[in-house]
Design goal:
Elements lengths: L2 E4 L1 E5 L2 E5 L9 E6 L4 E7 L4 E7 L2 E6 L6 E5 L3 E5 L4 E6 L5 E7 L8 E3 L5
Antiparallel strand pairs: 1-9, 2-3, 4-11, 5-10, 5-12, 6-9, 6-11, 7-8, 7-10
Length: about 120
């Protein structure tokens, strides 16, 4: 249902760069924030897939396949997560500081493509 990959890290004496998307982004890139204990999302896209990478804080991506009811959860530490179209998802801050996640969408946002879905917490 979800695909995860280790983050590609490039570092030198100035710091670390993390490659958050495996190829040039064809859609939009945005930042999602969640306060401690907060969940953001609870929806799926009919036609759009997304990649998620936590850049600060601690959190999980929780998902559910609306067709089968199958659920999964992934700790966002050190990986990027691909959520295919049709899979409901929510980002959950599991830490004590704000969670900051970069999201890369494969196409531009279309409100008619978004379906609210209560992913189990």
């Amino acid at each position: 249902m979800l695909r995860t990959e280790p983050l590609v890290r490039h570092g030198d004496d100035r710091g670390v760069l993390l490659k958050v998307h495996p190829s040039p982004v064809s859609g939009e890139v945005y930042v999602v924030t969640a306060r401690p204990g907060q969940a953001r999302g609870h929806h799926f896209h009919r036609h759009m897939a997304e990649w998620f990478v936590a850049v600060s804080g601690q959190g999980e991506l929780r998902a559910q396949d609306p067709e089968t009811g199958r659920t999964s959860r992934v700790d966002l530490a050190g990986i990027r997560v691909h959520v295919p179209a049709g899979i409901a998802h929510v980002l959950v801050n599991t830490g004590t500081q704000d969670l900051v996640v970069v999201a890369c969408a494969e196409r531009c946002h279309d409100p008619s493509d978004v379906v609210p879905w209560p992913v189990p917490l």
